[in-house]
Fold:
Amino acid sequence: MAERLYFYTNGEVVRSQTASFEWFAGFAVSQKQKSIASFHDMIRIRGKKPLEISTKSPVPLGVKMSAFNLKLDGITLECVFQSSKVFEHGGPYTDLLEKSPKDAKRDERLRSSGELTGFRYQGMDWALRPTTAFYDYIYYQAIRQTLSEEELKELIEYDAFTDIEFNDRKSRNTQARSAALVCTVYRMNGKLPEMTPEEFLECHKKIVRG
Structure:
């Protein structure tokens, strides 16, 4: 058995909840999808319609919404995120923008430069709090650039979001939470409005609760 967080829209806020489900060991996509199916069965029992957001998703929209596939200004979102990190002893390492998403995420400097102190993106410094705000912001911008109106309408058919690789004991940022935020904003406005970083931060404070 395993326990993982999922994120769901609840009116005009995003909340999280833990579900226990059967875990299928192994690195094969087929094994990951068995775990996803088991996870989603438990979420459906609670009256939610879940969507996996990752390259392992059985739904094409969920695959497209992975940070390894989304593009922001023509660059893979995962690379944008990793290249924006500022540490005690280095960063941001902007050369990561030119690497593959996997290589950017695994770059040794991200683990040897001391504690993470913040993010720097397009000349603006972001603090570590509100927690997840920076990641959610660039994810939101990438969704605005990448998804069609038809895909956004498909997205709001779901009200719960998972990322099978996310473990909240090891990290805070997850594309599942970001997707739940995107869904909530779209439902509230009938579109994804353009927002400055300052406007997004105000929105984030009101919406994200888990």
Q: What stands out?
A: The first strand starts at residue 2 and ends at 10.
